Amino acid sequence: MMHFPTFCHISEYGPPGYDRLDLMVAASDPLCLWSPSSTELRHHAAPVPVDLFLDYVDCNRVRIAGRRDWLYNGPARQNLATRWEGARWDETVDGRLREFCEGDQDLPAEQRRVTVSGEEDGWEWSSQYLEEHPDEIDFWYSAFCSAKADETIPRGVLENADRVRMTPRAEDRRRPEPYRVASAILRDARNHVQALEFSKAQAPVFLHRADPEFYRMVGRARDENQQPAWAVRAEQDPLSGHADAIVGQLLEVLNRLNDISQGDPLHRFIAGPGHTELAKWSSSICAGLKQVDARRVDGVVVRELREALRRGVFKTPIREIFASPTVQTAGILGFVFAALDVFINGASSYGRASIGLSAVPIVALTLRQMGWLSSPFDGPQWPFLYVYGTAPTKEHLRHLDRVLRRMTG
Description:
By secondary structure, the protein is mainly α. The two termini are 37 Å apart. The longest helix has 23 residues. It has a 5-stranded parallel β-sheet. Among the domains are: 85 residues, no CATH class; 52 residues, no CATH class. Helix content is 55%, strand content 4%. The chain contains 22 helices and 5 strands.
């Protein structure tokens, strides 16, 4: 079941994208990656080692989508690697992904670990569009040549446009440089957003400030039916509902929480219930902010998290425990000594404790109240599991609030 599916065209970001892979996996359920590079995965394996990455794919924490040549055609990848090293085929990684793809062909789309998308039509579309709107050529070429190009056009799109400028396709060799650049940019824009639509993600993961500005610029381009250039339905607009901004803020929060983490390695959090809770919480924020003014979105993740933690209550006061029939029957002093015996001697003492097995839950609650076990908390659990690897305690709650308060400035 998908609780908060996100999508990232990870290779567009180069090393910074792969360096944040662990945060993206933690923030998503699942994370869909478009044509990831096995070369980049190996070079930047500190956050997510290759074996762990393949495990994530195997259990549907991470899903892969791409063109058939990328997922199946090793020789074609090796040929592409002469222009981009990241395309090089790695049998250990790419061969395993191909096996997943072949094994899942008969499954429903939402259950497949690796999926082949249709063939691209970006070059054909951009060529036709520029023939019909020649004024767009100067617009995109000027944006490409601008000193601030990297603030409005994603890094990967810029690099590809530069490659096409220097080494044009056979079909475009007679075309002037401005045309080749504009065509390459619009081709990438169309393909990228069609990939997002194909993933069925609730939100895109944008890792650079140029991304949203780029899609706003592309939104100027309309086809003959006055549809956006990416030719997807309005509800699939990559900027609709502020989902991209919310995911970006969530990654910032997780990165800050990483800095203070005292718990288990992140992969244990991802395998546990806290990950699902985080995904549901993030999805609910996106759903609740679809129609709000953009100004209300700034800092919303920290605000919502602080408010949710403030509303949380530590349940079962000590007087309720001692009012229970079990404690009244066993005697308060006997009960307390049994609790101390459990704390000192461990679970094996349950069999010796005078109040018997029926009192085990009550003993645990008493130990929580004494501060030896964490208290039940009806607020969000995931921040505590993420940072401390344990259930909430009042001390941890105060610590988290201080950290989040500093994030709000």
